[in-house]
Design goal:
- This protein has 387 residues and is mainly α.
- Among the domains are: 6-66, lambda repressor-like DNA-binding domains (434 Repressor (Amino-terminal Domain)); 75-182, no CATH class.
- The chain has helices at 6-16, 21-28, 32-40, 48-58, 62-66, 77-87, 101-116, 120-140, 144-163, 167-183, 187-203, 207-224, 234-250, 254-271, 276-291, 295-307, 316-333, 336-349, 351-355, 358-368, 375-383.
- The chain is globular.
């Protein structure tokens, strides 16, 4: 039954309760025609309040009516434990043959794609073996090539652990990546390590440290961009400035936020494609305005951003995470219908960003309790077991 459309489930539960369509309609205070259209899928249930009334009339929980796979265990738990175990391995046996750096780079690329598409359980399963291999490669063949593998592996571990609310081990992984990066004396490698470190610091509430770390790395890049050893990378520079701005917003530093975002916008303009960089900056402005308490300005800016096509150039993970922030901004202003729509858009964009992040459940629960929430949100709330 849980694989059927909602209308068909309503019909089957009505039959189980030995009710005719007319009897069921009388309980709901609706017409028999209304019930018939619902059961045939001709009429969509657009409000959570209607779904709750139907569940109550059928004497079942809303979760039973809507959940596609009730009782499904959290798929990330085992992966988190495997990653923790990998971080706790301090002695890696030397490989029997020289490491294939090209193969490791390809595995790292696959892991990066998993992150960009919010496939977090898959990524958590990949990372322990990739970390062991990168550490073994660096021990066997130390140098810039293997350092350039190990730093982003630690970074990906930190980023995915932040996503699944494992802030302290995320900080540990990011710190280890930074230690490897600093040993290279290469500002670009250190800047790459700083992005996940800043996110991990923000996740454990160390916003000032997150801001200062990102600003220092950004300034080192700006001072070194004319040097022969460091390629110009306005995208990385902009990302660091965005991290710093979001950390400043968490501290209520409105002036600092504005200055950092303006610098990020200048870096984005250097990319020259008019898409990814500028869209990322505008998305960060929305998030920052909401964090500073101006939900009205944040939602207005969000609607202008999503009316254009540039923001769709962002990776699916980035878009979905941003839509969750937009949903929080709508909820902040009391607009639960648009908050619910943003949550559902986030799920359609990158399912894992919604289903595999524990922090999202509280937001879904709050919005789903509103009678104004779109009907699809009740199905999502039931799937996340937060009804």
């Amino acid at each position: 039954m849980n694989e059927l459309p909602v209308g068909r489930r309503v019909a089957q539960w009505r039959v189980r309760r030995n009710m005719t369509q007319q009897q069921f309609a009388d309980r709901l205070g609706k017409s028999k025609s209304w019930v018939d259209k619902v059961e045939r899928g001709v009429r969509r249930l657009e409000r959570v309040s209607n779904l709750r009334e139907i569940a109550e009339a059928l004497r079942i929980d809303l979760e039973v009516l809507l959940s596609e796979r009730p009782g499904t265990p959290n798929p990330t738990a085992a992966g988190v434990e495997q990653v923790r175990a990998a971080l706790a391995r301090y002695h890696i046996e030397a490989p029997t043959r020289p490491p294939d750096v090209a193969e490791l780079r390809a595995r790292l690329g696959h892991a990066g794609q998993s992150y960009r598409h919010a496939r977090y359980p898959e990524l958590l399963a990949l990372l322990p073996g990739l970390l062991d291999a990168a550490r073994a490669a660096r021990a066997t063949r130390p140098g810039r090539a293997t350092d350039g593998l190990l730093v982003p592996v630690y970074g990906l571990i930190a980023l995915v652990l932040v996503k699944v609310d494992q802030g302290e081990p995320a900080w540990l992984a990011a710190d280890r990546g930074m230690a490897v990066a600093l040993a290279t004396n290469d500002p670009w490698v250190a800047a790459v390590a700083t992005v996940p470190l800043s996110q991990a610091l923000r996740s454990v509430g160390r916003r000032r440290s997150a801001m200062e770390t990102a600003v220092v790395a950004a300034h080192r890049i700006m001072r070194s961009r004319s040097g022969v050893d460091l390629p110009a990378d306005p995208s990385l520079l902009g990302t660091l400035l965005l991290q710093a701005a979001l950390a400043a917003a968490g501290q209520g530093d409105e002036r600092g936020v504005q200055e950092l975002l303006d610098q990020a916008a200048q870096a984005a303009q250097e990319i020259g494609d008019g898409g990814f960089g500028l869209a990322a900056v505008e998305a960060a402005r929305v998030v920052a305005e909401a964090a500073l308490g101006d939900g009205t300005a944040a939602t207005a800016r969000h609607e202008r951003l999503t009316a254009g096509g540039e923001w769709r150039w962002l990776p699916p993970e980035h878009r979905a995470a941003y839509l969750l922030d937009a949903a929080r901004a709508y909820a902040q202003t009391g607009d639960m219908f648009r908050a619910g729509r943003a949550l559902l858009d986030a799920e359609r964009t990158a399912r894992g960003e919604v289903h595999d992040r524990p922090a999202v459940r509280d937001l879904v629960a709050v919005v789903a309790r509103s009678a104004a929430a779109p009907a699809g949100l009740a199905r999502l709330a039931a799937a996340l077991h937060v009804t």
